Amino acid sequence: MIKKGLDDNFENIRKIFTEYLEKHAHRKTPERYTILKEIFATEGHFDIETLYIRMKNHKYRVSRATLYNTIELLLDCGLVTRHQFGTNYAQFEKSMMFTQHDHFIFNDSGEVKEFYDPRIEAIKSTVEETFNVEVTHYSLTFYGHARSKK
Amino acid sequence: MIKKGLDDNFENIRKIFTEYLEKHAHRKTPERYTILKEIFATEGHFDIETLYIRMKNHKYRVSRATLYNTIELLLDCGLVTRHQFGTNYAQFEKSMMFTQHDHFIFNDSGEVKEFYDPRIEAIKSTVEETFNVEVTHYSLTFYGHARSKK
DNA sequence: TTAGATGCAAACGGTTTGCAGGGAA
DNA sequence: TTCCCTGCAAACCGTTTGCATCTAA
Description:
Oligomer: homodimer
Largest sheet of chain A: 3 strands, mixed
Largest interface: A-B, 41 and 41 residues
Helix content of chain A: 40-55%
Order of helices and strands of chain A: HHHHEEEEHE
Shape of chain A: globular
Structural class of chain A: alpha+beta
Number of strands of chain A: 5
Number of helices of chain A: 5
Distance between the termini of chain A: 46 Å
Radius of gyration of chain A: 18 Å
């Protein structure tokens, strides 16, 4: 049951990607679909190198160039989100349609926690009014460490 | 009057840096003080390359290596803050002791606006309680564009 | 058939590092 | 005098690009 649900969900993702590719007259290559599948098959955040290694381990050889190229498309159609957690390399995660969230990063390990606080929307609105702008996206990240137990 | 006030303020900054260097048994080299001065003499955000060029124009030749080295010290003693606005290079700004603020970035030009909304503190507290952590710092950045006038 | 995509490797650009020479303590 | 710091240039590493080859349409 659950398995089927997940499959159905991925079918939907696949369809979104297909529609996007068709709309923009991009080719539907097997590489692109395999990358999409690999990304949606795993949880959490990843960087390009990790994804590259993972696909190698799964016996599917793609070039880094194609990974960068495809990630670009996935970002453009909203299926993947890009983060830059204070480092000089990018991290990504599959978009979770109905669960907008922000991040807490452990200073030492880099471990990522997710949360959502609706009050951020109020701040966003205020910023939009203050500068007379339209916010397209935002990034809220807290950094810190476990509380020292007393 | 105002000029004097600024100078006094910089004297104070200088003193903070000196105390930091002494405390950590780091040498008080002229390069380090010149870099500090250059950073506090200008407004807004900057990256290493910009600072490098600017110092060259002011007829003071420093190596990039020394800039990176010194910035590290300034970050460590809290006189400078580091940002990574979604790019793969870092931007910095002098710390403004009494004016905590966040950023709005224009997607096209990269222009930076600053704001402060106290409601972020409430979100921070909630995150600390939720994950039982202590937040050491955070980053809140909105990205967007000017409102299209109708 | 052909324009767009892939794979490979070289180029790029910000940052880091190794090392010889220089200067603060 | 000592050894930390500086300047220079090479190394690093994530990302981008050029190009020959391949393939979806």
